Amino acid sequence: MRLDDSKYIEDAPDPNLQPAANSSRSLPYTDGTWNGGRNGIGMSAAIEFRAITVATPQGRRLLEDISLSVEAGTLNVLLGRSGSGKTTLLRTVNRMVVPTGGEVFVNGKPNRDEDLIALRRSIGYVIQETGLFPHFNVERNVGVVLEAEGCARAERTRRSHELLVAVGLDPAGYANRFPNQLSGGQRQRVGLARALAADPDILLMDEPFGALDPLTRGEMQDMLRGLLAGLKKTVLLVTHDLDEALYLGDQIALLSEGKLIACLEPEEFLKSDLPEIQNYVRAFHRGERSAGRVARR
Known about the structure:
13 helices, 10 strands, about 20% strand, Rossmann fold, six-stranded mixed sheet, 2 domains, four-stranded antiparallel sheet, alpha/beta, single chain, globular
């Protein structure tokens, strides 16, 4: 069973995954210090994972005692191979997954205390296949959250067009198209615009560019990097691509088998002597080494 594909984490809240009772024990790394390859809880954190555990009813741990801080206004990457638990951890933020132990704080408040619909509407969410409504045109897809909130049509249209421009799509040419009339990269741009429509402070991105070809993926990464530089959002991005993590991330958190191995800045990540990180870096550079051997023949 792959952790990211487990039936226990696809839909939430699952009645079999009930939060553990609040414990009086002290939480790890609450002084903001580095300890054992984990990032402590910071005072300016937009998202805090405190001793997060997710387990199936059979006792299998999908996440184990993860404590991690995501500072406001930064882009943090959850990196790992398929089944490492990175998507499971991401989904605890908007309560698509309910932890069986520990606590998730969003902007300083336990997210379990928030109204579920309000919580999810306040957090942008971008997935690989975008999830666009096929019977809505682009303009309506971008403004669908604002429509649900009762925003006036004129304001929805203005905001949709504003965001289409921001993600590199001309409203005159794209606003009235439908998802099946767009390329994969264009659909992903529309998905990003929709996630930003309600101006959330936090943006969750679950392998948003994973299905794109390398050139389109690079263009999307450039667009995202430029866009976020002006918006100052807090971003949590899931990927298995080390190049993407190094290019976009302020911090890279490596997960393996449901455990947090380390959370480091990109330069520190490449220099780390932790075996799990070295293995990941070596796998990433295999093509370069092979090409170098061929060139020397």
